[in-house]
Amino acid sequence: MQEFDPHVLDEKPIPPPADFAKKARIGSMEEYEEMYAAAAADPQAFWAEEAKNIDWFEQPTKVLDWKVPHAKWFVGGKLNVSHNCLDRHLEKNENKPALLWEAEDGATLQLTYAELHERVCQFANVLLSLGVKPTDCVAIYMPMIPELPIAMLACARVGAVHSIVFGGFSAVALADRIADAKSKILITADGGFRRGKVVALKDTADAALEKCPTIQKSIVVKRTGEKVAWKDGRDLWWHELVEKSPKDCPAPAFDSEHPLFILYTSGTTGKPKGVLHTSAGYLLQTQWSTRLVFDLRDDDVYWCTADIGWVTGHSYMVYGPLANAASIVMYEGAPDFPRKDRFWDIIERYKVSIFYSSATAVRAFMAWGMEWIDPHDLSSLRLLGTVGEPINPAAWKWYSEAIGKGKCPIVDTWWQTETGSIMISPLPGATPTKPGCATKPLPGVAARVVTMQGESVKPGETGYLILERPWPSMLRTIYGDDERFQRDYWSRIPGVYFTGDAAQIDKDGYIWVLGRVDDVIKVAGHRLSSMEIESALVSHPAVAEAAVVARPDDIKGEAIVTFVILRSGHKPSKELRAALSDHIATTIGTIARPAEIHFADLLPKTRSGKIMRRLLREVAQKGAISGDTTTLEDLSVIDRLAKAKGIDEE
Ligand code: PRX
Description:
Layout: H1 18-23, H2 29-41, H3 43-50, E1 62-67, E2 70-75, E3 78-79, H4 81-85, H5 90-93, E4 97-102, E5 108-112, H6 113-129, E6 137-140, H7 147-158, E7 161-164, H8 171-181, E8 185-189, E9 192-194, E10 197-199, H9 201-209, E11 217-221, E12 235-237, H10 238-243, E13 254-255, E14 259-265, E15 273-278, H11 280-293, E16 301-304, H12 311-323, E17 327-331, H13 342-350, E18 354-358, H14 359-368, E19 383-387, H15 393-403, E20 410-413, E21 447-450, E22 462-467, E23 477-478, H16 482-490, E24 497-505, E25 511-516, E26 520-523, E27 526-529, H17 530-538, E28 543-553, E29 557-566, H18 574-587, E30 596-599, H19 613-622, H20 636-644
Parallel strand pairs: 4-17, 6-7, 6-8, 7-14, 8-11, 11-12, 16-17, 16-18, 18-19, 19-20, 29-30
Antiparallel strand pairs: 1-2, 3-13, 4-5, 9-10, 14-15, 15-23, 21-22, 22-24, 24-25, 26-27, 28-29
């Protein structure tokens, strides 16, 4: 959780740039407050009005069916999400660029709405020809190439449920997710490019498929042209399938609550949870919030730098912007390839006007310095955004000055995989901002900061961030584990949605999100679980026990620190440390590699045997302990742990 400097609460809000406010969709706080009040007074009427912006095949008969914690939105309505992202734009925007893709090596591909529509239809026909039926699950494990959004939209078109697994996850992690969702088809690529090197995605996918009996076919995009292993009867080339496929594919009508996708995310246990989102509510709220939060215009060039493997990529690279007929930039590779100015170069060449990135990226740009930025013309930018983790005020101010040149509002957007769309954020033409603060809930969102008893905390006190009412893009359940859905989100404080975040509210009613209160760790905005890493460690034959905590990191926000007790017969060594790090990479993925691995001979535990992570966190952060340790089984362990940091191998 972020160290909080109480002085920032006293900072004066910065009004939106006057020029921006003049032209903005919502141009004043009065307008925001009016909208907020209307939504609070009659949420169903508010969302019913917004739902007019969906192209329905059949109108819903009821806005909401709500029995805590299960919501059905727009009951009786029928729609097709892919039709809403493509077909309906063809009349006016047939020739408008939909996708502006740039490969890491500089190659480009641009698809108009008509062309994207055609490709999605062709691939939808491929899925149909392979026997994919509505509600079948299709796993996607791909690099950032145009076939990825095409595959998503094709799934949506035929009513299949996509489950995208970020390309940085390991074979084991992919196999677990495929098994949990019982996916029938996998879509992958022969490989991807990262910093000029080939990432052998198919090798990893093949290793996963050895343990995935539910997968019938694996569709492979040829991206790198490297030689890959091939299993006849299972593996099929994307381009060969598409070549023969008709370019016309009707978009059938599906129920409002038809499942759209599953996205796995980390929680407090070792097992990732499959967050399930459905069609109409998700589409509506991502579409609506994209327009409102990014103040989206017809002529904007919109770039969200997130990987589609995470929820930000789902909601704000694909569904939200495409539902609004926006022109989206998609970049395949790393921000520092071939040089540290790649992003600024892309902004200059494509005349990007809206740039949505992460706090980690901003801190990295800041560390790389102005020499990479100054030579570029960034005057096309009119709005900047950030997401995924708290942004420290210094990074926020730098972003505003160095990239925004003082004329771009910053939207610090708070939300989660589970919320589906942005919940707390400034409206760029209305909300005075405070560096490091996500400011106020969007209209229709009832956010409060409370005690465990559900009572509001006073300004300046830390409490739990909760959401009080159902909202259209909320997760519907944890796939296959509705009990966990109820327990994790709706039972901690009965009847309200528990976010897992700590927050403070200031005297102006602004919400400052401080970070997680559970054992979720955010490394470079990527969500990982302490328990998942611990169980990966104890599955190594040398490890008897393990504890994992986070410590602050200047660039990545948080870094992973592990404490390991070895089984007898194993000795601490540099080699073992490297082997354990590799073991985590192969069990979870390279994103979970720890920054530090410490060997210990004891871990601090309560008398009931629970590892005291709070104490370990202090050791990891400061190398010393303060506060109450009276429930510790063996007090001397802390001393020994603190001493062990850094000097614990032979
Ligand atoms: O802790 C909060 C943090 O990211 C968590 C959600 O992670 P994930 O499901 O991976 O979704 C990330 C992208 C939406 C939250 O519980 N978080 C997200 N945005 C912010 C944030 N923390 C502070 N400020 C934000 N703007």
